[in-house]
Amino acid sequence: MQGIHFSSRPDWREEARDLGFNVALLEKPAYWVEALDEPFCLRFSVDEVKAIAKATEEINELALAMVAHVCAAPNSDELMDKLLIPPAFRQAIRNSWQRQDRSLYGRLDLAFDGSRIKLFELNFDTPTGLPEAAVLQMAWYQAMCAQSENHEGSPSFIPSLSDQFNFIQENLVTALSPSAWPETNSGIHFAYYSHADEDAETVKYLYGCAQVAGLMAKLLVLDDLKLSSNGVIYDGEQCAVQALFKLYPWEQIFLDEERLNSEGKALFLPHVLNNQTVFVEPAWKALLGSKACLAILWQMFPQHPLLLETYFEHDSAAAQLCQKPYVRKAIFGREGANIEIVFPGDSLRGEQSSGEFRHRGFIVQAYEPMARFENYNLLIGSWIVGSRAAGLAVRADQSKITGRKALFVPHFVA
Description:
- By secondary structure, the protein is an alpha+beta fold.
- About 35% of the residues lie in helices and about 25% in strands.
- The strands form five sheets. Strands 3, 4, 16, 17, 18 and 19 form a six-stranded antiparallel β-sheet that branches. It has a five-stranded antiparallel β-sheet with strand order 11-15-12-13-14.
- Helix 3 packs across helix 4 and helix 7 (about 170-175) crosses helix 8 (about 195-215).
- The longest helix is centred in the first third of the chain and has 27 residues, at about 45-70.
């Protein structure tokens, strides 16, 4: 893996806008790397990409084995307690797994130094960064290749025998084909919150993939959904929602439900239990939607070469781990919030938030340094569609904790 500087394309903003991106999200502050004065990309070898893809699919298998174990084990309730699954939703989650409710996609965050691969986190419920991974970096790669072809004899950092490990869109279109969703003759409703710009771009992109696949699809904001007393969800046009893609995390649904239950009301729980609506991502993905699953994975597969030693903070084994450099992570947290890297005699803190997830528990995980390019730490995001590794998305941050200031860095394979 090699970092390489290149010159920004003068028209990259116009191209991004033509592709449907909100350019303000890409450059204010800099997120897409071409917004920098000195942008860079990464070059991977074919063997490196093969190793990452193999590791991705193996970790996915471990995660599915964990879900199966949590759902069927004699101590299933105890494990769900650790994963902070409310009792009211547990049987629905078990039923969802037993039905083999379909999963669409996910992202694994990995440490990779050219040979050693370790799992940092699973983003298997509401992963973001999808359109820039699938579309924006592919457009960059194609433009770089065209630039080389149009200037014969001029040096180019991308050789003619190159590629990009990016089959995300092809796999999504296949996964969203009508034949893959025979139980939903009215297609899928894709819903997002109108005030969440990044989420809206992801949902609109997936809606576009469904259209390309020939699947009936509707795009709407979550506030337009109507929850009926007869257990059916309706859209704003009073059409029944047979399948709902919601970029809204299950743990937030659990909190919403808990708050409403205290008022004698219910929101999603009846609809999850009666199985009249197919949810994407499915309810069983809640077991992989928090960092708590990392501790369960280590408990099930100790010493696995792709996993980092991880415990719940108050487990007896955590004390020994914390004698070495370690990372303390909130069970629920996103984009680097509520993470602390602890070294002997020193600490480096990420951005701290006062969100409602902050005090719901922590895990501790063995510290694993990331590969670096100049003064950037490189986090490898490996996308999976269904059960197949589909592409890479690299983020670079000057902090050791990848957060909201991280850059998206395109790549190529040669």
